[in-house]
Specification:
binds 3-methyl-2-oxobutanoic acid, eight-stranded parallel barrel, binds zinc ion, two-stranded parallel sheet, alpha/beta
Length: about 375
């Protein structure tokens, strides 16, 4: 396997599904899992089996039908959780148990009323327990973003020794700045003696809008797995958005990374998740928002119509989106107006467009967007006037 392959760990069906209103039933989860596999993700986190009988069933059904991707179930550092996850995953071709515990002082003191040494022991025990059931065990150090790096390195070294194949360094609260998160990953790379025996994973939340930037900083500093969700869904402000990291890796080839995701399926996948989870995508969302390939100001439209590269870094075809749109508003210019008339079958000369543009602005000032029917009206009135 190439050293620069970034493993895409999709957690739409687990962290994404934790969003209020996004709960999925087993049929919906199975349908999305099949599409995620087709998309090319490497790992599908299918759920948290002990959390409910329904989620156990979903993980179990997904395990039966997924053939290429690893199927992963989340647990706490609790024996019963791990046993239930192992049972839910028993039909999976590539089962992974994702177990872990909070490692920041805040979690250790206030959540567990414990101390660093006891938490270290529990971390080791949960990995060892999970190893009784599956080879592939991922350990998460919850709130690693706010965990002291020296202690984090001790925990990471110990869980790798216990058999963890992947070590997840979550910025659970979305607190880190990109350089801080990157330094944390670099610290682990440089200070954990057995780090070469495991893959480091980034799991970043978006509370400060930095989830994607932090994940990219993580891989630049040595991580090789990114945990992400379609449309950036997830607890509170969400998780790292899958479509963003995939396209950053693809657009910035000089970083030297690649993923197995078929970018042409990103927009259809985003639509399917939005519909199934009943969670619309914000229109200005990168890659998959409805405005991601729309141009509305005159300066941009003029440039775009001369050469799309002036205002677009991605061809919408590359990400399975509809063709770029020229939207007409009061900020639009003559070239955009002429272009839209042309598309409707009207051929007007420069003088016509100059006159039509004045009429157009009156309409545009009175509404948010000038629509096709408005253009027909304007064209008819103009033709009637000049004949
Ligand atoms: O945000 C987080 O820390 C998590 C862990 C359970 C991996 O979702
Ligand atoms: Zn999370």
């Amino acid at each position: 396997m190439s050293a620069n392959k970034i493993h895409i760990f999709d957690t739409t069906l687990r962290d994404g599904e934790q969003v209020p209103g996004c709960k999925l039933n087993t049929t919906e989860k199975v349908e999305l899992a099949l599409k995620l596999e087709e998309l090319g993700v490497d790992i599908i986190e299918a759920g948290f089996p002990i959390s409910s009988p329904g989620d156990f069933n979903s993980v179990n059904e997904i395990s039966k039908i997924i053939t290429k991707a690893s199927v992963c179930g989340l647990t706490r550092a609790v024996q019963k959780d791990i046993e239930v996850a192992a049972e839910a995953l028993k039909y999976a071709k590539r089962p992974r148990i994702h177990t872990g515990i909070g490692t920041s002082d805040l979690h250790i003191k206030h959540k567990f009323n414990s101390n660093q040494e006891d938490i270290l022991l529990r971390a080791i025990q949960c990995v060892k327990w999970a190893k009784n059931f599956v080879d592939d065990v991922e350990f998460y150090a919850e709130d690693a973003g706010r965990t002291d790096n020296v202690y984090l390195a001790r925990v990471v070294e110990a869980v790798i020794k216990a058999g963890a194949t992947v070590v997840n360094i979550p910025d659970t609260t979305g607190y880190c700045l990109p350089h801080q998160y990157g330094e944390k990953i670099a610290f682990l790379v440089n200070n954990v003696s057995n780090i070469d025996k495991a893959i480091i994973s980034c799991h970043c939340h978006n509370d400060l809008g930095l989830a994607t930037a932090n994940s990219i900083s993580g891989i630049i500093n040595g991580a090789r797995q990114i945990e992400c969700t379609i449309n950036g869904l997830g607890e509170r402000a969400g998780n790292t958005s899958l479509e963003e990291v995939v396209m950053i890796i693809q657009q910035h080839k000089n970083l030297g990374f690649h993923s197995g995701v078929n970018a042409k399926l990103l927009n259809p996948m985003s639509l399917l998740v939005a519909e199934t989870m009943r969670m619309p995508v914000q229109c200005n969302k990168a890659i998959v928002g409805s405005n991601a390939f729309s141009h509305s100001s005159g300066i941009h439209q003029d440039g775009f119509l001369k050469d799309a590269l002036t205002y677009e870094i991605i061809d919408p075809v590359e990400v399975g989106a509809e063709a770029s749109k020229i939207v007409l508003t009061a900020r639009s210019g003559r070239s955009a107006l002429a272009h839209r008339f042309h598309k409707l079958g009207y051929t007007f000369n420069r003088n016509d467009i100059d006159r039509l543009y004045q009429e157009f602005l009156l309409v545009a000032d009175s509404k948010k967007e000038v629509m096709e029917e408005d253009l027909h009206e304007l064209a008819k009135a103009h033709v009637a006037e000049v004949v």
